[in-house]
Design goal:
By secondary structure, the protein is α/β, with parallel strands linked by helices. The chain contains six helices and five strands, in the order βαβαβααβαβα. The protein has a five-stranded parallel β-sheet, with no helix packed on it. 34% of the residues are buried. It comes from Brassica rapa subsp. trilocularis. This is F-box/LRR-repeat protein 15-like leucin rich repeat domain-containing protein.
């Protein structure tokens, strides 16, 4: 199985998600939005066992904390060597998360979410390319993707001639 939508299945627990992670290592897309019982344990299991995960929906999973985000970031770093092996074999498929919805996950801090964003360059917060969705997380306004950081560096490296 590569794709599963469990969104708003309110009885889904960590036990169920951990079983899914262990039993479906090729999972690429998982929607857990509104699964209010899941915690960091679910995300840690997904990060460790589902190395091909590209899209993860955690909207309104209010028990998710920084531990889950750091686990995702760490899994991305660990799996980079697999990506290079694929490149060498001519089978390059951009590895890592391309879409993450953490809207209403209010326990998350900017440093943890920025670690995920830095690890997975396909996650975007910039206008028109929102693949890292953080609606309702008012404390995460300082999290930015590489595009915004690059634009800021370019702008500060070449100041306007009027200055």
């Amino acid at each position: 199985m590569q794709s599963l939508n469990l969104g708003w299945c309110e009885n889904i627990s960590d036990d169920g998600v951990m079983s899914l992670a262990y039993g479906c290592p090729d999972l690429r897309t998982l929607d857990l939005c509104g699964c209010v019982l899941i915690t960091d344990e679910s995300v840690v299991a997904l990060a460790n066992k589902c190395v091909h995960l590209r899209s993860l929906g955690l909207y309104y999973c209010r028990n998710i904390t920084d531990r889950a985000m750091y686990s995702l970031a760490q899994s991305g770093v660990k799996n980079k060597h697999e990506m290079w092996r694929s490149v060498k074999k001519g089978k390059f498929d951009e590895e890592g998360l391309r879409s993450l919805n953490i809207s209403q996950c209010t326990y998350l801090t900017p440093s943890a979410v920025q670690a995920v964003c830095d690890t997975f360059p396909a996650l975007h917060t910039c206008s028109g390319r929102h693949s890292l969705v953080m609606s309702g997380c008012l404390n995460l306004t300082s999290v930015h993707c590489a595009c915004i950081l690059q634009a800021h560096r370019t702008h500060t490296a070449y100041p306007h001639p009027a200055h």
